[in-house]
C-alpha cells in the first residue's frame, strides 16, 4: 500500500515538474520592427471605413514583447507615420461638394495584449503558425494640416476653422493634439526561422477626439477667420452659410494600421523558481 502511494506521489511530483518546465520554456521576450500602412475614418474622406486603404500612407515602428505562455503575451508598441484623407475620393455627393482634405503625422505609444487561438511560441518547432487577436490602450499625437492655394501646408489648429476661442462660439475650445485610443485587431503569425516570427496585422483605434481631421461642427462666419483660415475652412465652390453642418460631432475619428512585424526571440535564461508561471 505504501509503495503504491509513493508511486502515485512520485508521478504527481514528476507531472508538476514537467508542467513547470514547460511554463519556464514558454516564456520568451521578442524585439522587432513594424512596417505597413495607415487607415483613417473620420469626417473627411471615404464614407465606408474599408475604403480608407486607398489613401494609405507609410507607418513604421518598434515592438517589445513578452510571451507568458503559448497563448498569451503583452507588448509595448511605438509607431510613427502619416494619415491622409480627401473628400474628392468619396462616393457621397455632399462630401464631394465639401471638397476638404487633410494630412497629419501620427505617433503613438501603446500597451497591447495578444491572444493566440492556437499554441505558439518562437523557438519551439512543434508550433509554426497561429491566428491571433489583440487589444490594448495607446496614447497618440497628431497635428492636422491642409494644403492652401499657394502650395503651403498649414497647421489647422491655430486657424480656428470652426470658430474655436471666438466670442461667437464660446463653447468651442481649442482641441488637444493628443488623445487616448483603444486599439483592436486581428493577425496571423508564421515562424520564418527558429528565432524569427513574421506577424501579419490589421487593426483600428477607437479614439476620444473628433478633430484628427480638424472637422467636427459647423461652418462659421468668415469675418472671425484669417484669410488662410477662411480659405482652408471652406474649399468648396459653394459658399456654405454659418451654421451649416461641416462635420458630425457625434462620431469620433478612428485610425488604424496594417502591415507586418518581424520579431526576433530572446529566450529567458533558466532562473529556477523565480521564472515560473502558474
Percent in helix = 10-25%
N/C terminus separation:
32 Å
Strand content: 35-45%
Report the sheet with the most strands, covering strand number, pairing sense and barrel closure: 8 strands, antiparallel, barrel
* Spatial ordering of strands, largest sheet: 1-2-3-4-5-8-9-10
Q: Give the rounded overall mean pLDDT.
A: 88
Shape summary: elongated
Note the run of SSEs as H and E.
Answer: HEEEHEEEEEEHE
How many beta-strand elements?
Answer: 10
Q: Enumerate the spans where pLDDT stays under 50 for 5 or more consecutive residues.
A: 12-25, 271-278
Query: Structural class of the helices, strands and pairings?
Result: mainly beta
Output the number of helix runs.
3
Protein described:
By secondary structure, the chain is mainly beta. The chain has helices spanning 2-26, 93-98, 227-233, and strands at 28-41, 58-67, 72-86, 101-116, 129-142, 145-147, 153-155, 178-193, 196-207, 254-267. A hairpin with a 4-residue loop joins strand 2 (58-67) and strand 3 (72-86). The chain is elongated and about 70 Å long.
Topology:
Elements: H1 2-26, E1 28-41, E2 58-67, E3 72-86, H2 93-98, E4 101-116, E5 129-142, E6 145-147, E7 153-155, E8 178-193, E9 196-207, H3 227-233, E10 254-267
Antiparallel strand pairs: 1-2, 1-10, 2-3, 3-4, 4-5, 5-8, 6-7, 8-9, 9-10
Amino acid at each position: 500500500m505504501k509503495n503504491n502511494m509513493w508511486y502515485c506521489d512520485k508521478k504527481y511530483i514528476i507531472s508538476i515538474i514537467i508542467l513547470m518546465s514547460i511554463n519556464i520554456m514558454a516564456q520568451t521576450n521578442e524585439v522587432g520592427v513594424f512596417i505597413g500602412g495607415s487607415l483613417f475614418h473620420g469626417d473627411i474622406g471615404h464614407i465606408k471605413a474599408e475604403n480608407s486603404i486607398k489613401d494609405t500612407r507609410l507607418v513604421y515602428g518598434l515592438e517589445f514583447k513578452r510571451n507568458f505562455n503559448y497563448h498569451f503575451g503583452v507588448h509595448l508598441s511605438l509607431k510613427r507615420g502619416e494619415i491622409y484623407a480627401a473628400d474628392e475620393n468619396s462616393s457621397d455627393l455632399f462630401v464631394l461638394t465639401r471638397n476638404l482634405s487633410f494630412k497629419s503625422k501620427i505617433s503613438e505609444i501603446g500597451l497591447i495584449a495578444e491572444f493566440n487561438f492556437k499554441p505558439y511560441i518562437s523557438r519551439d518547432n512543434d508550433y509554426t503558425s497561429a491566428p491571433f487577436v489583440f487589444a490594448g490602450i495607446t496614447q497618440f499625437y497628431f497635428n492636422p494640416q491642409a494644403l492652401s492655394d499657394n502650395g503651403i501646408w498649414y497647421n489647422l489648429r491655430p486657424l480656428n476653422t470652426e470658430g474655436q476661442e471666438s466670442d461667437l462660439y464660446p463653447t468651442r475650445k481649442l482641441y488637444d493634439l493628443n488623445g487616448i485610443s483603444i486599439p483592436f485587431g486581428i493577425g496571423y503569425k508564421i515562424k520564418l526561422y527558429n528565432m524569427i516570427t513574421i506577424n501579419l496585422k490589421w487593426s483600428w483605434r477607437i479614439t476620444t477626439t473628433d478633430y484628427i481631421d480638424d472637422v467636427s461642427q459647423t461652418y462659421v462666419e468668415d469675418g472671425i477667420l484669417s484669410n488662410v483660415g477662411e480659405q482652408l475652412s471652406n474649399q468648396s465652390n459653394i459658399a456654405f452659410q454659418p451654421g451649416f453642418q461641416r462635420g458630425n460631432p457625434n462620431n469620433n475619428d478612428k485610425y488604424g494600421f496594417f502591415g507586418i512585424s518581424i520579431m526576433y526571440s530572446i529566450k529567458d535564461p533558466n532562473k529556477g523558481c523565480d521564472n515560473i508561471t502558474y
